[in-house]
């Protein structure tokens, strides 16, 4: 390899038994650097080409032990790409003309979707072996189909969606929408972006905003997916369409402590736990303990522990304790006493208060010691699961999980 260290335009070529097609590629592309991928039987062809072009380009040769191995061809193609990047290449072309079929397939698989242009030396005049006759070569530039069909972006979108990283999903959608698209593709991805914006609002408890996005985009995206007969898109979007029903209920009652809101909070915590964010998940379960008592009391008595306007039926002493700055223990104690006032026993609110000292307090102590609360200790899966299982045993269940790809 030459001692120089940079090449603006790099050509990566698979080398077969004949030099003519590669000579045509070199003459057409005029690269500053060339990476040859050759077999033990064809590396001399690469050497002949280097000699013939007399130092016109940087060069590097990668040898295959087995030119029939797709895996090795793929690995060496990635190595060729790394070499091109080490030369600080600004444009990279991969020529698929020479070499065995596994060599060509490995090169295409490794470099698809990486901003590489493909080329092929063809021609209408062939010899008895099917090879293009020397002097009749024709250069063809080939579009990377993964770019046209945004394969890489769609894969990245699915990974981000499955990790509930909605900003990353929108970034991939912006990249797709920047490409030339058919009218139906344009409409689908625009509507899908609206759906993702709705999910992001939903995930942050902005239910009214989420419903507006879903109402404006979800059904339209689903109709296009059904027309395309894209099974996975239909599955994801139709499942979301079913889950919009409880979202409407949440949007209609934005300031009420409800069992529906509790289910959403538990599902929200589960999404954090699924991605290893146990501190965030446990903080949501802490609030879920309060909300479980508040929702239970509101459903049975219409009393909101944090809204004095809902407490007309209570005694003056109980009314005086209702305010929006209640701590957890205070809230559970007040809910317990309100149920006693109405002559109730064995309710969820009373069970939660009765369990506070012996069950809940030790579980919640882990949250207090966490970095996101008052301590320095990270929270693990075990702490989250113990509190989740306790709440589930009390009848507090998460809303159905959002669909994944």
Topology:
Elements lengths: L8 E6 L5 H10 L3 E7 L3 H11 L4 E7 L5 H17 L4 E5 L5 H11 L5 E6 L15 E5 L2 H4 L2 H12 L3 H12 L5 H21 L3 H22 L2 H22 L6 H16 L3 H24 L14 H6 L6 H14 L6 H21 L12 H13 L12
Parallel strand pairs: 1-2, 1-4, 2-3, 4-5
Antiparallel strand pairs: 5-6
Helix pairs in contact: 3-4, 6-7, 7-8, 8-9, 9-10, 11-12, 12-14, 12-15, 12-16, 14-15
Placed side by side, the strands forming the largest sheet appear as 3-2-1-4-5-6
Biggest sheet details? 6 strands, mixed
Q: How many strand segments? A: 6
Shape assignment? elongated
Given the helix and strand composition, which structural class is it? alpha/beta
**CATH fold-type name of the largest domain:** Rossmann fold
How many domains make up the 3D coordinates?
Answer: 3
Mean of all residue-level pLDDT scores: 91
Total helical elements = 16
CATH level 1 name of the largest domain: Alpha Beta
User: Beta-strand level of the residues, as a percent range?
Assistant: 5-15%
List the helices and strands in order.
EHEHEHEHEEHHHHHHHHHHHH
CATH architectural type of the largest domain: 3-Layer(aba) Sandwich
Note the gap between the termini: 46 Å
Radius of gyration: 32 Å
Uncertain runs are none
Percent helix range: 55-70%
